[in-house]
Amino acid sequence: MQSENLTQKPNSEIFLEVFTEIEKCLKEICSNDYAQTFSELLQRAKQKNHVVNHYAADLKEYAQLRNAIVHTRRRNFIIAEPHTEVVQEVIHIRNLLKNPPRVKEVMKTNPYHVASGTLVREVLDTLAQKGFMRCPVVDNGVVAGLITAKTMARWLVSGSIEIDSSHVGDLLNFVDPQDYCIVSESSDIVSLLGIFNSSVKNGAYMQAALVTKNGKSNSPLVGIITPSDFPSIIGHLKVKH
Q1: Closest CA to 143 of 64, 36, 216
Q2: Domain count within the chain
Q3: Are the C-beta atoms of residues 94 and 25 closer than 8 Å to each other?
C-alpha cells in the first residue's frame, strides 16, 4: 500500500493531496456520475462501497477540514494544520479504496468439507464435535454445495428418511444456492462485504463465502468466510496508528 513520508511535507499539503485522491476514488466508485457537492458524491458512494460507508462520517468532516485549509491558506502559513493522526487516517482510507485487503488475508484456510458419498451421520457427528455450522460439499474437486442447518431441516421434513444410512448426496437437492457464494482468494474483502450486505438486503442472509483459487466451482477449495469472521474483517479496515 502507498505511504507518505510525513516528515518531508507539511501535514496540510499531504492532507490535500491524499484527499484529492480519495475524491477521485469516490467519483470512480460512482462511475464518474455528476455530483454537485462532495456530500452528494459521498452519499452516492457509500451505497456502493463498504469502506466509504464505514468512514462516511469521517470523510464528511475531512471535507470540511479540506475547505478550511483551502480557504484560509496564507503565504507560508496554514491556519487549519491537520494533526498527524488525521493525515495517517486519510492515507489509510485512500489505501483501502485503491488497494483493499484480499480475501486470502482473512479467510479460514483448509475448511472442513465432505464428498457426496459421505454418510450424513458422520457429518452430523463432526459438526457436533467441532462446533461447525456449515459444511461445503466437494466432489472430484468441484464445489457441489453448502450443507447448513437449513439444509438439514428441509431434508428432515421432506419425508421418511434414514439418517444412519443416508449420504450427503441425498441433501444436495435441499441446498439453497443463496446460502453461499464462491469467490477467488484474490478478491478484495470490500467487494465480499458488499455481496453479504446485498444478500441481507434481499432477505437471503448468505451463510458463507466459499473461497477457491480462482473463484470457480471447479477450482480447489482453499478457504471459507462466514459472518462470524466480520469482526476480524472490520479490523482490517481500521486505521492503525
Answers
A1: 216
A2: 2
A3: yes
Reported as a single tens digit per residue, the pLDDT across 83-132 is 999 999 999 999 999 998 899 999 999 999 999 999 999 999 999 999 99
Determine the structural domain holding residue 59 and report its residue range: 11-99
Query: Which residue, 81, 99, 117, sits at the end of a domain?
Result: 99
Domain co-membership, 66 together with 136: no
Listing DSSP states for the chain in one string gives -----TTTS-HHHHHHHHHHHHHHHHHHHTTT---SSHHHHHHHHTTT-HHHHHTHHHHHHHHHHHHHHHHTEETTEESSPPPHHHHHHHHHHHHHHHSPPBGGGTSEES---B-TTSBHHHHHHHHHHHT--EEEEEETTEEEEEEEHHHHHHHHTSS---TTT-BGGGGGGG--GGGEEEEETTSBHHHHHHHHHHHHHTT----EEEEESSSSTTSPEEEEE-GGGHHHHHHHHS---
* pTM score over 0.90: no
- B/e letters for 79-102, b = 16+ CB within 10 Å, e = fewer, are ebebeeebbbbbbbbbbbbeebbb
Does 92 map to a domain? yes
Per-residue pLDDT reduced to its tens digit, 113-122: 999 999 999 9
